[in-house]
Specification:
The complex is a heterodimer of chains A (about 300) and B (about 210). Chain A is mostly helical and about 300 residues long. Chain A is built from 13 helices and no strands. Chain A folds into 3 domains: about 40 residues, no CATH class; about 70 residues; about 120 residues, Serine Threonine Protein Phosphatase 5, Tetratricopeptide repeat (Alpha Horseshoe), CATH 1.25.40.10. Chain B is mainly alpha-helical and about 210 residues long. The longest helix of chain B is centred in the first third of the chain and has 23 residues. In chain B, α9 crosses α10. Classes of the chains: A mainly alpha (about 300), B mainly alpha (about 210).
């Protein structure tokens, strides 16, 4: 089958593309006359084609998305490396534990053997001398003491594992929890549950301070506060953003918050900083335009 | 930059022409080379945005978030790309699936508000074809969007690629890796699911029955 092969259903598509011969026009009319579904697909298809593919602000939107998606991809890669590192650490831990267990077992066997061999010798001697029990008691008590002091290898391995501080898994769990909360917060924001979204973003700051999610949460909180009209809070969040990837976005948010607060001199200063630090950012054009406009 | 939208607006010849360029870029992006990822995302961005807008509606509040999710899913799916279709077809398909799933999830949560019959028609522009005709087209578009949220996924995917994006049967078959007859059968089944929906919408039904 080639992609040029045509089926009756394709008549609608070809009509939408303006790619119909006179003969196919007739066939299309027949198809539309006979099929209710075909008429609807045709009507809807024309409707979809009539919708404008571009809207004002698309360039900025796409620039923002490229930044965010690029960053998310980097995070994905570093998460993969982090997982590999965790796996390697876990393997090392298991190997060390096994080695320790093996060493204890070996030590124990050697010790038992070193105690058992003289006892046999002694028992042989005692058989000769007629005093079998005194030495055997020593051997038994030594063995019992040894058995009491040194746990069996399996136990020893698990004990070693228990004693190892669980730092890496805790970090991993916290990172997982942070991503989960971040996703929940994003979902809540998308579904218009602003209060819940804000609470979740706030939680990220305390759960995983300094994490990428917490940084992103600051930006989201800034935006949500701007929408809510609490520009002072928005300003606090935009200024708190410490990430690198979205610095321009944070600075742009800061200028909008300052504008909402009526602190126009500070806004102009921030706009100037934005133009200097990020001259090729999509926000710079807006900033320059804003700087060019007279102060309100 | 937005010229790219025009370039990818038809899944035919122009996309074939761009196929090789994007293949190399997609391969580098698959290896997670940061610059390649950025370039790839910039290259496919307008196309993904366009698909998402078509799938959920141009004024949907979540267009930006959905486009971002679609792009992330595309990057994650790149290792599965085997070159059976062009990179752009692959991108379109993942974007369709991503936005369709988001819409389904949304529909499951707020089913009542998604009923196409309840779609608010205020603010629909009334250009040359006349207000009734435009409103009917708008209702047809919304009916297809609502249908996509309820159909079984394979049918919905075929319908989205065919009706929303304007793919031919052969192109859908190539993108989805199924036989052309399977695609036709899925489109037929989607058409059959349409009838009960049309019964509820008298005006659209009159329009459809009155056509061509």
């Amino acid at each position: 089958m080639t992609s040029n092969q045509r089926f009756p259903e394709d008549l609608i598509v070809c009509a939408r593309r303006g790619d119909l011969s006179a003969e196919e026009h007739k066939s299309l009319r027949v198809l539309l006359g006979n099929s209710e579904a075909a008429r609807l697909w045709y009507e809807a298809g024309m409707g979809f084609d009539a919708e404008s593919p571009v809207q004002p602000g698309d360039e900025e939107l796409l620039a923002r998305l490229a930044l965010r998606v690029g960053k998310a991809s980097n995070q994905r890669v570093s998460r993969a490396w982090w997982r590999i590192a965790l796996l390697a650490a876990a393997s090392l831990l298991v190997a060390t534990t096994a080695a320790a267990g093996g060493w204890f077992l070996l030590q124990r066997t050697n010790h038992s053997r070193s105690l058992a061999v003289p006892s046999e010798r002694e028992s042989a001697k005692s058989n000769l001398k007629g005093t079998p029990h005194s030495q055997l008691t020593v051997v038994e008590s030594c063995s019992a003491q040894l058995a009491g002091d040194v746990p069996p290898p399996a136990e020893s391995a698990s004990a070693v594992a228990r004693n190892v501080p669980p730092a890496a898994p805790t970090i991993a769990r916290r990172a997982e929890a942070a991503s989960e909360i971040f996703e929940r917060a994003n979902r809540a924001r998308r579904e218009g549950r602003t209060g819940e979204a804000m609470a979740l973003y706030e939680r990220l700051g305390s759960l995983a301070p300094g994490s990428v999610q917490a940084e992103q949460a600051d930006l989201a909180l800034g935006e949500l506060n701007l929408q809510k009209g609490t520009a002072d809070e928005a300003l606090r969040h935009f200024r708190r953003y410490r990430g690198q990837a979205m610095s321009a976005e944070a600075l742009w948010g800061e200028t909008r918050a300052l504008r909402q607060l009526g602190r126009l001199a500070e806004e102009r200063e921030a706009l100037g900083t934005l133009c200097r630090r990020f001259p090729s950012s999509p926000y710079a054009a807006h900033a320059r335009k804003r700087l060019g406009s007279p102060e309100e | 930059m937005l010229k790219l939208v025009e370039n990818v607006s038809r899944p035919g010849a122009s996309s074939e022409r761009r196929r090789d360029d994007l293949s190399a870029l997609a391969e580098a992006a698959r290896r997670c080379e940061p610059r390649a990822v950025r370039t790839f995302v910039t290259a496919i961005g307008p196309a993904v945005l366009r698909v998402v807008r078509r799938m959920v509606g141009p004024t949907h509040a979540d267009v930006e978030d959905l486009t971002q999710e679609a792009m992330i899913q595309i990057l994650a799916a790149l290792p599965r790309y085997r070159g059976e279709c062009s990179v752009l077809h692959f991108v379109y398909r993942i974007a369709v699936l991503a936005s369709m799933n988001a819409r389904r999830q949304y529909a499951a949560e707020k089913r009542s508000t998604l009923e196409y019959a309840d779609v608010e028609l205020d603010g629909v522009p009334a250009p040359e074809p006349g207000p009734e005709s435009t409103a009917a087209t708008h209702r047809a578009v919304n009916l297809v969007r609502a249908l996509l949220a309820t159909l079984p996924e394979p049918q919905a995917e075929a319908l989205a690629l065919h009706c929303v994006l304007g793919y031919t049967v052969a192109e859908i078959a190539q993108s989805t890796g199924v036989a052309a007859e399977t695609v036709r059968s899925r489109l037929r089944l989607a058409g059959q699911s349409l009838r009960p929906k049309l019964v509820d919408d008298r005006r659209l039904r009159e329009r459809i029955e009155g056509a061509p």
